[in-house]
Amino acid sequence: MKITDFHALHPGTVRDGEGDEVTLSVHDLGTLRVPSGRVRVCDPFVNLDDCLEFAVPPGDYPVRVTMVDCEAYFSLVLAEGEAASVEPAASVEGAPEPGTCWLVPVDAGTVGMVDADAVERCMPELNDECDWYEEIFDSGEPTSWFELMDSEEHYQPGLANIVMPLATHGENVVMSHSGFGDGSYPVYLTRDAAGRPLGLHIDLLLIAPEEDEDDAEDAG
Fold this sequence. Notes:
The protein is about 10% helix and about 40% strand.
């Protein structure tokens, strides 16, 4: 992908793949704590405990969501700067096959990120007496994850930053609706001109790359 086709964290007006003008806005989603240096990228309601992991320096990082009419990119900001390149992100398992990306499977219309170790320490153990869905995700309480996702008082509807049930140091999960909904979404890494990693991004495929004139001629 060319950096000119990648619009994460850039507010303003751009043209999508069909040539239509769309206006992007960037929304702050607070901070994600990543003390382990391993970020899980997931659909939090479906595969929080079994998903892709990506290595980053341990720390606390801003999270921002770039939106058109709905969510277009979900970004963990590793450093401030101007992106000069974009590439498929390498997971802890290694780089994806050439010409491909690691994909986040989404089955509940939601994407999110969380510290890998925090999931093991700060979520109740799943067993016959504990069901995350009924007790945490959709308990009907104001603090349930679905309630916070829909709340106009907690960030904005469709976005949430939630401290996990057994957290002792603010361990949290950040999440947003996934643009068009269920599917599989690629994970990219942006770098500055010196090669420094700037952001880990889920591309929600809302904005198709613009077609080059040469490509358009070849297609015709």
